[in-house]
Design a protein that fits this description.
With 218 residues, the protein is mostly helical. The chain has helices at residues 12-15, 17-36, 39-49, 60-67, 77-99, 101-128, 145-154, 161-173, 188-212, and strands at residues 181-182, 185-186. A two-stranded antiparallel ribbon has the order 1-2. Strand 1 (181-182) and strand 2 form a beta hairpin. Helix 8 packs antiparallel against helix 9 (188-212).
């Protein structure tokens, strides 16, 4: 458990160079988009990086990249602490120290991209069947929450054995506590957060368990 908290200290920049640089980039883009730009320019930038269903066409690849570079720190303190603090600063930093920068950000990118595409399919099906209103296809959808929840799930197998199951369960189910429900179906953001955490847990098992398997006898 001590390992997950080793984000500070004099060696933090060296141990977590990628994570630290990413956090700095998110801070810069936040200041530029939400503080320096006019409201109209801000709206245009957010519309350009949004991954909502109505706008995901040939521009999908740059949108998927751009949406992971913009985060609004002015949201609720709890959301910011969970997504940016725990998800990126702590968990992505831990993954970087244990797996290396490329693999850590590969986990983050996989959750961000894969879950975004799955959520788009869920939205399309739910709107087609009348479960979601058609207006959700035009809602702005950007940010780092899918990748951050993926990182939170992905540290599961780095934790002590007694903590793994409750950690994974809370990571996967906690997003439902704030969900808006359309009958039995939660809103698409909550669907994405649940899938992101679950994706991270699965990747954690694939990345870590073979490394910790006992050596063959003889």
């Amino acid at each position: 458990m001590v390992e997950i908290m080793k984000i500070g200290g004099p060696g933090a920049l060296r141990r977590n160079a990628g994570t630290t640089s990413y956090l700095a980039l998110l801070l810069v883009t936040h200041v530029v988009v939400f503080r320096a730009l006019s409201p109209e320019s801000e709206r245009r930038v957010l519309a350009a990086v949004s991954t909502n269903l109505a706008d995901m066409n040939w521009s999908a690849p740059p949108r998927l990249v751009g949406s992971a570079l913009v985060v609004d720190f002015s949201g609720s303190f709890l959301d910011t602490a969970l997504i940016v603090g725990l998800g990126i600063a702590v968990c992505l930093g831990l993954l970087e120290r244990r797996l290396g920068t490329a693999r850590a950000f590969g986990v983050f990118a996989t959750a961000h991209v894969l879950v975004t595409l799955v959520v788009l399919a869920v939205v399309a099906a739910a709107v087609h069947t009348g479960r979601y209103p058609e207006a959700v296809t035009h809602e702005l959808d950007y940010g780092v929450s899918f990748g951050a929840l993926g990182a939170i799930g992905a540290v599961t197998w780095f934790l002590p054995a007694w903590l793994r199951l409750p950690w994974a369960a809370v990571a996967v189910l906690y997003p439902l506590t704030a969900a808006d429900w359309y009958g039995w179906l939660p809103d698409y953001s909550s669907v994405g957060h649940v899938l992101s955490a679950a994706t991270g847990v699965i990747m954690s098992a694939l990345l870590v368990r073979p490394r910790t398997a006992p050596a063959p006898q003889g």
